[in-house]
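User: I'm new to structure prediction. If I give you an amino acid sequence, what do you actually give back? Let's try with this one:
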Amino acid sequence: MIVLDPQNNVFTLHTKHTTYQMKADQYRVLLHSYYGPRVRDGDLSYLIQYADRGASPNPNEAGHRRDYSLDTLPQEYSTCGVGDYRLPSIEFGPEDGSRLADLRYVNCQLVPGKYSLEGLPAFHGQGWETLSVILRDPSSGVEVELLYGVCEEDDLITRAARLTNRGSGDVRLCQAMSLCLDLSRADLDLITFDGGHVRERNLDRAPLRPGVQGVGSVRGTSSHQHNPFVILCDHDAGEDHGVCYGAALLYSGSFLAAVERSQFEDARLVMGIHPHHFRWALAPGESFTAPEAALVCSPDGLTPMTHRFHRAIREHLIQDPHAGARRPVLINNWEATEFDFDAERLVDIAREGAALGMELFVLDDGWFGCRDTDDNSLGDWFVNEKKLPGGLKYLADEVNKLGMKFGLWVEPEMVCPDSNLFRAHPDYALQIPGRPPMLSRTQLVLDLSRKEVRDCIYDQLRKVLSSANIEYVKWDMNRPLTDVASFCLEGERQGELFHRYVLGVYELQERMLTDFPHLLLENCASGGGRFDPGMLYYSPQIWTSDNMDVVERLRIQEGTALIYPLSTMGAHVAACPSHTNGRSTPFETRGLVSLPGCFGYELDLTKLTEEELAMIPGQLENYRKYGPVFHGGDYYRLASYGENGEYDALMSVSKDKRTAVLDYVHVMSRQRRRDVLLPLRGLDAEKRYRSSETGEIRSGAGWMYGGLLLPNMKGDFLGKLIVLEAV
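Assistant: Good question. You get back a string of structure tokens that encode the predicted 3D arrangement of the chain. For your 727 residues, that looks like this:
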């Protein structure tokens, strides 16, 4: 609910459990008053502190008021060059190179429904209100429209900014954040999700220190290294206590999430497109739209924050053509064949999978161009008929006859120098004239800022997808951007290329899903290098990581699930030993760790033992039975191997609270006197539940407050799936 008090210029955003408020003061500066647990009071601007801090500049309008300075006041969208020395939200200037942004309140408007952002992902659906607030820089005429979306029931507030040049001269925009949040305290922890290739989204937590800290990417993607999601929380915040602020950016390119703890012990968070190499030219009348950011405040710890993000992402972000249906169990041919296959070999693999109950066969790399190694043919998206006579239709038809769906791997953003496309159009690749381009995985990146390049790639993909009954596409992206220059942008406009590239990717995926609305799209970037909310707008699931080792996956999936629903995480049973670290783990445990995500197999079925093959039908039965609970229920972190060094436990409780599924992994054995006691969470205290492990029946209160006792397991990498059913 949005409440406007135009007489006092106070604007309040209420969600079910939180309140967010701002106020335009007597100098028309938009100040941030409050964000936290819901309050019914009207004007909370009494919380804004005015004091002579010393050496802090005072605006001209304030006259001799030394207690009024933008250097000390909480701003709703921070400025630059006019006395605020903290992190700016916006920076622009005329062609002479000066940089100044002095934004003053003009007006606001309450609009029913949710705003949309052209060419950019955004939350959507029913139950939204929009607040539009107009700020203007008096000197340049630059106008900033701050957009706020409020989904009251889901406790979600979204932010975006649209900048328009209302002046008479050209403007050079060099920073445009999506979100600025000023908090009047700095006694907070910052949680980020960091790592690298095959070790994505490991949780990192530390107290705010004086100065600027944060994460970001300048790779052209959101990256393996840092995720565009951060949390600010009380030092002692845990799963069910403490105030937590979660902020996520719906963007799949270079980003910045930075927090500054100032000299006055307050904190400012800014989040948006990374200003590194960013420039955007705005002629009079032209606009630029910054991507959307999403905010959740939980007064009661991390778990409610997680639930609110999970619910909002599932119901208001993902556009799933098969919403409500369980995701199909897939088998991929790569581990069995790599590049060495023909149609009959692939049909044999599909037949083996179908006999075990698998539902989707995915043809991986090597089906196109002259692709027999990974150093050629990217960009040549036509079927290699030496391997697949008759094209993909024969193969897809044979797979369909087995009762399975057929899927395909593609990597549309890349081109190999050894390809027909590059030989015909070398300028289609990103490269700096006069310099040899830098290869990664023997690939170059296509300049998707150019319409003719996007059309060339999409025309090829459209023909392929129209040639057979293809129901799933895995869209891969295996290298970051380098040599970021375009043959079609001049001068400072080269600074637009990073962002125009991301817009090009979004447009390609939007076109594909518009023309093939039945497709299940899974995004991938060398594993989890582009696992971000922006991608989830186009694909309901993303490959979580190329690392499928059980122990490493526990860490990766725990960090990922803190914001992203389990239904978005591609999680497959892989070959053993693990190709990333050589660790050997039991087949049963690999199934347990993969079960909560989008389940499948990445291995050669012919190399499994009889005992392992015999386990597959049971794993599939568990996924069919309990996948809907993991994917549609409420997720709880019960124990973290990353914290205790011994075991990991998560559970999911169905919405009607009749079924709870506990996934427990005993990672490392140690001598201990006691068994593991796990207090459960999320059950109905009054209901009675039977344990599938022991048959014991206890009340929900008994299971939650007394706990579940798990006998000490002897051995490493063991696990259990325990189900509690209401009786």
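You can read the tokens as a compact description of the fold. Here is one thing that stands out. The chain has a mean pLDDT of 96.
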